[in-house]
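We store sequence with structure; for instance:
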Amino acid sequence: MELTDKYRWKIIAAVAFCYLIYAVVVQNIPPILGILIDTFHISHTEAGVLMSLALFPAIVLSLPGGLLADRFGVRITGIVALATMILGTVIVAMGNSYFVLSLGRLIIGLGAAVLVVALPKIITTWFARREIGLAMGVYHTAFPLGTILALNFAGILAYGLGWQVPIWGSAVLCAVALLLFIVFIREAKSEQSETLKSGNLLGAIKEAGWKIWCVGIAWALFGGGTLAYFTYAPDYFISSGRDVAQAGLIASAPMFGSIVLAALVGMLVDRVRKKWLFAVIGLAGVALMLFLIPQFTNYAVLLAISMGIFVAMFTPASFAMPADMLPERVRGIGFGIILTCLGLGNALGPAIAGMCRDVTGNYWCSFMAMSVMVFLGIIPIVIVRAYKKTKK
């Protein structure tokens, strides 16, 4: 047990690094949208599709990926997923047309869809009995840190050295993540003993139950709204008079709050145990900040940082819910359900925001769409809470 207790912190470090690199790979497109639009003569909607393509496969593959993780273990599925992401990133870096860029982003999405199911399952396996909130807080610190790195450095490298440079850099980082995954990730004994025996996808989904779908819908709405923000915020702030560095800094500001507070919120979740309350407050706060940013652009830095505080409340609390709802043998399916919904939200969110921008000629309508999407995520969380209270 002592060995397990010590080794699991190496596990969370490796998992968090892989999630950080996932964020870098996915988020290196928004800072170079302007270059891609000019170079390949594409619209804002088409540029948004490049972002969505890396996330669209999650709609189709998260459930099968969760089944594979439950059936064969996270180690094999994670290695294959990271290798696929490396291939897709290399294709994007070598792309000389919109079609090739789209193909590479789609291949990235194939690997990412499986990876982001396997990673949280690893955490619940090693931390389900205690400190699950803290572990999820650490895990969700990685994504904002990766996003900050991408939004602040990808644009600078692209405008200074060429748009391919940040893409090649993310390919190298992804290879490092694969190496660390191979070296450190191990199956826990409990996971080996509770491996899903059947390959029946529908049976596993039925066993997971309807409440996990409510968590997934909340994540779809949250992800669609926030990803649309990270996709178009750099271009919005550049069009508002900021330079590239300032635009990237403001766009990534919500992530600073998450980096500082996610682990702390996770500890509070472990202590207070009202995960639903943290999730609801987080969603309401993010929606409000998205509504206010285009109204008070001069205060965008403060509003964006405040958004990060609420992001830090929602993410670890909601991602810790499956550990309470599901037995270990179907947690991969549970996270597959969440990420299937998130994939749908991520695919639609940036495209909807880009369409609003193309139709109206400004970003005000886009920000309103983002705000509404996130706010609607409160409803399914409240439904789960109301059902639980009724059962008592």
